[in-house]
Amino acid sequence: MFAQDIMNTDITTISADSSVHQAIDLMVAKNISGLPVIDNDGNLCGLLTEGDLLRRIEFGGGRSAGNSDETSLVDFDDYIRSRSWRVSDVMSASVISVTPDTPAASVAEVMFQHKIKRVPVVSGKRLLGIVSRIDLLKGIVAAPAERTASGDDALARAIRARLQGDLGLDTVAIKVSVQDSRVVLEGTVSSELERRAIRVLVENVKGVSGLIDKLSLA
User: Using N-to-C axis directions, what is the helix angle for 50-59 and 76-83, rounded to 10°?
Assistant: First the structure.
């Protein structure tokens, strides 16, 4: 599954030359927390979020008027962001984006690493869509389950292979048997955490109807 499979293409955008008032009205009317900003050619040039707008309050009014000679105390960027009513002055110009063929797992990793709620999907500079956290969740639910060959023996082989491949466990130490699609696990595990990981693995194998856990702690 890729970004193009889960992105939302019904995007509300705003021009870089628009006013902050217009942006706020749009965000309130559409009940959204962020707006992609486009230039006159329709290319993505920034992102305006509720965080950018709330920072106006945090910035305050800059240094006091009585310190006109102390220009070194002025943070000009903060001053502009706190007082300008032009979207281009308040937006975040450094936008983290992905391409349509970015795997969904990589999109999630980008959002996690950068602590962001949405990622624009672009081709060149052209905005194609937006992937939000809720889009990722919908993608997880819609993802087709892995196909596994039918039959008890096939299920047992699949589970043994995943125990070794996914968890790096010794399949000699853990005996797997399947009867009427119910999995029986016997053997020894090193911790309760390992036992839980095995349970999750088995529950995610398509075709398994139940699990009997006879594992013991070392």
Answer: 110
Of residues 180, 174, 173, the one with CA closest to residue 199: 174
pLDDT at 65: 45
CB atoms within 10 A of CB 174: 20
The gap between the terminal CA atoms of the chain, to the nearest Å, is 39
- Element housing 183 (H / E): strand 182-189
In terms of Cβ atoms closer than 10 Å to its own Cβ (0-12, 13-18, 19+), residue 121 is buried
The residue type at 196: R
Q: Which two tokens stand for residue 166?
A: 């996914």
CA atoms within 13 A on the CB side of 45: 15
Mean pLDDT per segment of 10 residues, for the chain of length 218 residues?
Answer: 89 92 93 90 90 74 49 73 88 91 89 88 90 83 60 90 88 89 92 92 89 90
Helix, strand, or coil (residue 175): strand
